[in-house]
Model the fold of this input.
Amino acid sequence: MRVLVVEDEKKTASFVRKALQAEGFAADVCHNGDDALAAAKATPFDVIVLDIMLPGRDGLGVLKQLRERKNSTPVLLLSARGEVNERVEGLNAGADDYLPKPFELSELVARVRALTRRNGENKSTILRVADLTLDTVAHYAQRGGKKIELTSREYRLLEFLMRSAGRLCGRMMILEKVWDYNFDPGTNLVDVYVRRLREKIDADFEIKLLHTVRGSGYVLKEQP
Ligand code: CA
Done:
């Protein structure tokens, strides 16, 4: 198990590395965001421990860049402030867990270990809801054995809905995740795309998977 620790405070980085090594992990350290992105590109890590406060490109910027590059390594974000907004922003940007500073090293190690386990369970590249599948490598969907062509935006929308299967996805959350908007553009963009997606994944099938939750958003699930 190989962990990348991204933290500019050298003392903290060193403590974290030693704690991980003591628990049997291999640990590499980077002191800034650009080095971290280069390291993540060169080496497959099992978990990335990523401090938000970094010189230059900050941790959230690194995280967004990783996810844009389709790097799905689990990320544990560290923050000095523990602000709710930062936590929400981090989780929305694709972080898997969050730990406010100051933290106990034992807690950090426990969270890293939990993330390695979670990653092991989710190694499949195929997402599935009922008879709808999405190949996250080849970027295409299938339902009932029939291949469904998707535009790149439709793909991103469907991937997000499938990863959140069974959970309500609000319009604002969808705008953030699929369009990278942090504001409400005041259009019915989401509804338009959901309608297009429905045409492709639900129209020809008796059992509908993409449901509207009136006034709130959408949920993808087998049962209404
Ligand atoms: Ca820092």
Summary: The helical segments are 10-22, 33-42, 59-68, 84-92, 105-121, 152-163, 171-179, 189-201. DSSP finds eight helices and twelve strands in the chain. The domain at 126-220 is CATH 1.10.10.10 (Arc Repressor Mutant, subunit A). The radius of gyration is 19 Å.
